[in-house]
Design brief:
Length: 131
């Protein structure tokens, strides 16, 4: 009887892992992830462009940590993407890569269209040129 129980547990584990694999390789998951990445790219585009215009006004407000920035209701930023967008653009542009951070948005759009199954450029070539 002990052997039968071990086989049943092993079969349940195999079924569990195949179910997880099926979930992550399914079309619904790919479409949902692609949609999420596309929305994230649009949000970051709004945040980055707004940072180029209003970044100098928000710069002194963004010296705090992210949790302090979000929890303090008295802080008002001029970034159109809100406090989170102002903080993300401050980190990515001022403390990170600079203006080439816009390439990240382009790559997110390309990845999302790849996940939709509608590639409009070769991902490998664009990734190499972008890096």
């Amino acid at each position: 009887m002990a052997k039968k129980t071990k086989r049943t547990k092993t079969k349940k584990r195999i079924r569990l892992f195949s179910g997880i694999k099926t979930f992550f390789s399914g079309d619904k998951f790919k479409y949902s992830l692609g949609l999420f990445l596309l929305v994230l790219a649009v949000y970051l585009l709004i945040a980055f462009v707004s940072f180029l215009f209003f970044g100098h006004a928000d710069h002194s407000l963004l010296d705090k940590s992210w949790s302090e920035l979000l929890s303090d209701p008295d802080i008002r930023v001029q970034n159109k993407a809100g406090k989170t967008g102002a903080y993300l653009s401050e980190v990515m542009i001022n403390k990170g890569f600079g203006v080439p951070s816009f390439v990240l948005i382009f790559l997110l759009v390309i990845i999302s269209f790849e996940l939709f199954g509608r590639p409009f450029v070769r991902f490998g070539r664009v990734l190499i040129y972008s890096v």
